[in-house]
Every structure is written in structure tokens, then in C-alpha cells.
Design brief:
Blueprint lengths: L7 H9 L4 E6 L5 H15 L4 E6 L2 H16 L12 E4 L2 E7 L3 H7 L4 E7 L6 H10 L6 E6 L7 H5 L4 H4 L1 E6 L9 H10 L2 H7 L17 H4 E2 L6 E9 L6 E9 L4 E9 L1 H4 L5 H12 L6 E4 L4 H9 L5 E3 L4 H13 L3 E4 L3 H7 L6 H5 L11 H14 L16
Parallel strand pairs: 1-6, 1-7, 2-4, 2-5, 5-6, 8-14, 9-12, 11-14, 12-13
Antiparallel strand pairs: 3-4, 9-10, 10-11
Helix pairs in contact: 1-2, 12-13, 14-17
Bound molecules: adenosine-5'-triphosphate and magnesium ion.
Length: 408
């Protein structure tokens, strides 16, 4: 990347990052990290001698988001390739690099006195790692610069730290998407379309807001529930959320020539309502009846349902695969597909439709700073998410897509 100019917000960072802790939080793609890139050469050349540390969520994301672009901007002479056990030379100074989620990270920084640390994606770090870092930055004149996207208002970084700016000596810079003048208008519009509700408030407006109430609040019967599929189906898939004492849900999905996904049929077995639990073999028979003569390209199953996966394979079902069960990423994928109209549900899928009104964020977990759905009325939602996220979640979001990739 090339630094063409400096935004007003990045100038703020350059001018006012004179505290022990200088943290930028806010919208995606808003220029926070590049602000840090401008600061790093100053820190490396002006701080007193001592150990320096660069921290990412993982070492891999640190290399991708920070070290590679830094090398592109400043050249190999100033930003070396990593060597040894996670070390680099940065503007002539020796720095350690760690992934905060790495088991070894805490032990790596234990006993290390630091004069400087730079951190990316701080909210994704374990709180224990951050606490350890606080005690490591004990040298007189030590400084920290870092950035993150906002989470809920009760996240440990917000309540335990950023909200105590005076006490800890923190400069907190808050970014909105519109604070970055270097993005094309099309790219910004595409990002704004991608995020709705709480994601919009956090990732576009840069606010630390609660994930509150109904999760798929963009679900609208008028828009998403249809009587008939308006086009030819190119391929079929099945997804499964499995339970023994809990309900089991299957969904049959058709993908049309336009790329739209349609949920055509559902199967729902709630042992509490039916007064009977089913065995794996009975569920496998139910699957055969459910798909009839349709040959799905894959049956995407709850990864914890090993015995049922085995039963399906034994009974001759082909391409039984594990679902990608990353809950929050999956919820974002499903939200995006609903928002962009790429996912529709047939009217006859009654349980699926009813569950949209009951699938809510867990307010108790929010108080602990965690985004989590309530684990009730979530079976059709889990099964839909398995399908949509496993098939379409790897489709890179507009956030990380190049402008060319977006057709801009
Ligand atoms: N000074 C600049 N000169 C040129 N381009 C810039 C500048 N600042 C930001 N950009 C462009 O904006 C993009 C996003 O900036 P940056 O990576 O700093 O955002 P961020 O706030 O860290 O985003 P995220 O929260 O997604 O990590 C950069 O990849 C770059 O293309
Ligand atoms: Mg960033």
C-alpha cells in the first residue's frame, strides 16, 4: 500500500498520542491501523532503549495486517522479515512479535520489561493477556499504541479500561467509517449495505453498543417469505442441527441460477412435544423420507453430532460434512444474506419462520461483555446458519475484498 496523504483523524493520532496508552477504536476500514503505521517510526526512533513488542490476535493476522503492509510502505531495510522465535528488526530496533491468543504468548512476555508495545485487534485478546501486558509496560516512559473495533459496552476493554481513561492515562480516539477519506464512495456504500442493526452501529458508526433483542431484526416476512420459488434450482443441499433430548431440525435448500438460496422444506422433531426420543437410525430414516428422490450435493451436519454423521454414512448418504460452527461469523453471514435478499424461506417452513421472532441475544452474557444468542428456539436458526455460513461464509466480505474484487 502507498500512504497518499493523512486523514484528519490520523493527524489527531499523530498529534495527541502522547499518553502512556493511546488507543483507537471504531469502524472497520476507518484508518486506525494506518494511523498506527505513521506512529511506529516515531516511536522506534524516539523511545528510550528497551524491549519492544508487536501484538496481533494471532501471529498470522499480525503478519498479514501489520508486518506485510509496514514492509510495503517502508521497505525491507526498515522492516525486516521475521526471524528466530518471533522477532523482527523495525527501524533498527529489535522487536518481539506475538499472537495474543497463542498459549505461549503470556509466558513469552512474562518477565519481560517493555518500553513499547503496539497492538492490533485488542478486543479479541484474552483479558488475562492484556492484564499481563499492563504489568509489563512498567518501565518509566513506556508507551502503548493500538487499535480495535468496538464490541458491547460491557466488554472488558471498555468497562475495565477505556472508561477509566483518567485513572490509566489513556488517549482514546474514536473512528467512524466516514473518517476515512481514502475509500471510494462505492466501497463505503457497499460496506454500509453489508452491516445492519448492531453491526452497523459498531462497524460503521464505531459505537460500543449492546447486541440487544432480536438477532435477525432484518428478517421481514414481506421480503423473505415466499410462496413459490421464482426460478430454476441448480443444486440442493441439506443442513442438520441434531439433538437427542433437544429438538432436531433438517432443512432442504435449493440454490437458484441467480445464486439466491431458498429454504424449501423443514423437518422438526421436538421430543418434548412428540413425547418420544428418536434413535440415530430413526433420524436417518426420517432423512431419507425428507429428501425423497432429491440428491443433495452435501449434507452439512452439526459438528458435534458424530454418531448421527456415522449413521448417515452407514446408510449410504453421500457427502456428509461438518458444518462450520463459528457462531458470530455465521450470524453475520446469515444477516448479510438476508439483508442483500440472497436468502429466502418458503412459506411452508413454519417453525423456521416462527423461530425468527424468538431468536434473541442473551442479555446476561451481554453484561459480561459477550455476544451470545440465547440457546432456546435456536435449532432452525443453527441449522440455517450451518448451511449459509459453511457454503457462503468464506466468500470474502466486502471489508477485506479489494476494490477490483468488488468491481469498483
Ligand atoms: N493515509 C492513508 N493513505 C492512503 N490510504 C489510506 C490511508 N489511511 C487509510 N487508507 C486506506 O484505508 C484502508 C483502511 O485503513 P485501515 O486499515 O487503517 O483501517 P482500520 O480502521 O484499521 O480498519 P479495520 O478496523 O478493518 O482494521 C487501508 O487499507 C488503505 O487502503
Ligand atoms: Mg485495522
Amino acid at each position: 500500500m502507498i500512504i497518499r496523504d493523512v486523514s484528519d483523524k490520523q493527524l489527531d493520532i499523530l498529534e495527541y498520542s502522547d499518553s502512556r496508552w493511546n488507543i483507537s477504536s471504531g469502524a472497520v476500514r476507518s484508518g486506525k491501523t494506518v494511523g498506527g503505521f505513521l506512529l511506529l517510526p516515531l516511536r522506534m526512533t524516539t523511545l528510550p532503549p528497551g524491549n519492544c513488542l508487536l501484538i496481533g490476535k494471532t501471529e498470522r493476522t499480525l503478519k498479514r495486517n501489520i508486518l506485510n503492509p509496514l514492509r510495503e510502505i517502508y521497505g525491507k531495510k526498515r522492516v525486516s522479515d521475521p526471524f528466530g522465535d518471533g522477532e523482527i528488526k523495525l527501524f533498527g530496533r529489535h522487536c518481539y512479535i506475538v499472537g495474543a491468543n497463542d498459549e505461549r504468548a503470556v509466558t513469552k512476555i512474562q518477565g519481560l520489561g517493555l518500553v513499547y508495545a503496539y497492538g492490533d485487534e485488542i478486543t479479541t485478546w484474552p483479558e488475562s493477556f492484556f492484564n499481563m501486558l499492563k504489568s509489563r509496560l512498567s518501565e518509566p516512559g513506556a508507551m502503548f499504541d493500538g487499535s480495535c473495533n468496538p464490541e458491547g459496552p460491557f466488554h472488558w476493554l471498555k468497562v475495565g479500561f477505556l472508561d477509566k481513561a483518567e485513572e490509566y492515562g489513556i488517549r482514546h480516539f474514536e473512528f467512524k467509517l466516514d473518517d476515512n477519506p481514502f475509500l471510494s464512495r462505492e466501497f463505503v456504500e457497499a460496506l454500509k449495505r453489508e452491516y445492519t442493526g448492531v453491526w452497523y452501529d459498531r462497524y460503521v458508526e464505531g459505537k460500543w453498543v449492546l447486541a440487544d433483542g432480536i438477532i435477525y431484526d432484518m428478517f421481514d416476512k414481506q421480503l423473505h417469505v415466499i410462496e413459490r420459488i421464482p426460478e430454476q434450482i441448480r443444486s440442493y443441499y441439506v443442513a442438520v442441527d441434531y439433538g437427542t433430548t433437544n429438538p432436531t431440525a433438517f432443512g432442504l435448500y435449493g440454490i437458484g441460477a441467480s445464486g439466491t438460496v431458498y429454504k424449501e422444506r423443514e423437518y422438526y422433531w421436538d421430543p418434548a412435544n412428540e413425547g418420544k426420543q428418536k434413535t440415530d437410525s430413526e433420524f436417518s430414516d426420517a432423512m431419507a423420507a425428507f429428501i425423497g428422490n432429491i440428491v443433495p450435493r452435501a449434507i452439512i451436519v452439526d459438528p458435534s453430532a458424530e454418531s448421527f454423521q456415522l449413521q448417515l454414512k452407514r446408510d449410504g448418504f453421500r457427502n456428509v460434512i461438518n458444518a462450520d460452527n463459528s457462531v458470530l461469523d455465521g450470524i453475520r453471514t446469515q444477516s448479510r444474506m438476508l439483508t442483500t435478499g440472497r436468502y429466502k424461506v418458503l412459506e411452508r417452513c413454519k417453525q423456521t419462520i416462527a423461530d425468527y421472532g424468538a431468536y434473541v441475544w442473551d442479555s446476561k452474557a451481554q453484561e459480561r461483555g459477550e455476544d451470545k444468542p440465547i440457546k432456546k428456539f435456536d435449532h432452525t436458526k443453527d441449522e440455517e446458519r450451518y448451511l449459509l455460513h459453511t457454503l457462503f461464509g468464506t466468500e470474502r466480505s466486502v471489508r477485506t475484498m479489494s476494490k477490483r474484487g468488488l468491481g469498483l
